[in-house]
Amino acid sequence: MSINLNPQLTTEYESLFGSCLINPVKQNEAVKIKNKIVANKPVYELVENATRVPWFVVAVIHSLEGGLNFKTHLHNGDPLSAKTVHVPKNRPPGKAPFTWQESAIDALTFDGLSGVQNWPLPVILFKLEGFNGFGYRIKHPEVLTPYLWSFTNHYQKGKFTQDGKFDPKAVSKQCGAAAILQVMVADGDIII
């Protein structure tokens, strides 16, 4: 099933982000993540310069895929000491070990993000959701993807605990992309 960013989905993303509130219990954690991201903005900007993917989008993916660890692949958090072993497997091309920057550029190019010309809010959220996969939207539409909405009023529970395995009672412990972006907007670090 192919998912496209159509007018209905555009409106959904705009409405959800506009009504998104960070769970007060998780606010400090979201702010700590945002502060680490902003402290490393020059590193993310190097990848932005090579791919045209906004630095903060790169950073949010880095938070979700690698816990902001610069020793892991942006693709999926596998160690840079070897090619990726999780989906996508066997990335990037070339011989290990890899630098974080070269791996990040490969991840964004491989996933088609480097070809995006404009980055308004619906495109940002669509591309972030797509980077993780549309499994929630396709197989469990009753759950808004925690990749975007964890730590917010739009997510309570339900999680893929591994590729293809969904647990309706599991709760994501990661700060979702929308929560990070909300803090960045509120603190004036970005304008979307």
From TrEMBL:
Source species, domain of life:
Bacteria
Q: What is this protein called?
A: Uncharacterized protein
